[in-house]
Design the sequence.
């Protein structure tokens, strides 16, 4: 077989493979299967302005020593975004991403439902997940400096993270936020920032996040700072 014939065969195989991929993707699009993932729909549980604020806060901490911690990382979209932000800033940070990858701890969900009167369906939230999905999000984005930890985040020893410059606490409900906030704050570097997501009064599902945030801010004699409609900030004085 001549070189020209070999090259032609290789091109034919590549073309056939690409056509098959296109056909599969087209079929999935028409059938509504995995459409969000295949076609890059908005991957964040935040609005564009909220995403912009998270990036802005990451930039604000660029001179603060310490690592990045995200508690409640879901599929990894915000983890990728913020680790890439630090990389673009040439800021060397290790990341720690914690999640049960199986929804809320039952006792945590029950508290918000039974004590705060929240919608019982929150028990089923975020169960459709898997740790391997998070790892794939990091891998496909070329991020290799994030430790992914599958566990109840209230059981984690945050001293393992060393000094923390920036943290995103996105576990939505009262008990875990109440437990985790002081642990994160103890590790927070001077000038560091913790963001508590879903700080929305009277929310039918996530008001527990706001209550826990408000209580902690009062305990450290600070003031509430809620930006972009739901991001509760805690700043450690320099």
Sequence:
């Amino acid at each position: 077989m001549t070189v020209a014939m070999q090259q032609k065969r290789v091109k034919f195989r590549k073309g056939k493979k690409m056509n098959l991929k296109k056909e599969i993707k087209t079929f999935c699009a028409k059938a509504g299967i995995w459409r969000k993932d295949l076609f890059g729909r908005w991957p964040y549980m935040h609005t564009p302005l909220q995403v912009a604020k998270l990036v802005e806060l990451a930039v604000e901490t660029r001179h603060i020593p310490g690592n990045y911690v995200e508690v409640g990382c879901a599929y990894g979209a915000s983890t990728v975004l913020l680790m890439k932000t630090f990389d673009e800033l040439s800021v060397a940070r290790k990341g720690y991403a914690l999640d049960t990858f199986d929804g809320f701890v039952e006792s945590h969900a029950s508290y918000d439902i039974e004590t705060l009167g929240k919608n019982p369906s929150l028990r089923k939230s975020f169960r459709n997940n898997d740790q391997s999905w998070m790892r794939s999000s990091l891998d496909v984005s070329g991020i290799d400096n994030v430790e992914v930890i599958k566990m109840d985040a209230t059981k984690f020893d945050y001293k393992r993270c060393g000094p923390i410059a920036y943290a995103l606490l996105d576990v939505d409900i009262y008990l875990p936020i109440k437990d985790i906030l002081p642990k994160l704050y103890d590790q927070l570097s001077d000038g560091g920032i913790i963001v508590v997501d879903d700080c929305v009064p009277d929310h039918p599902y996530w008001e527990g996040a706001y209550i826990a945030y408000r209580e902690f801010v009062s305990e450290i004699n600070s003031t509430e700072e809620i930006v972009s409609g739901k991001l509760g900030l805690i700043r450690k004085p320099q």
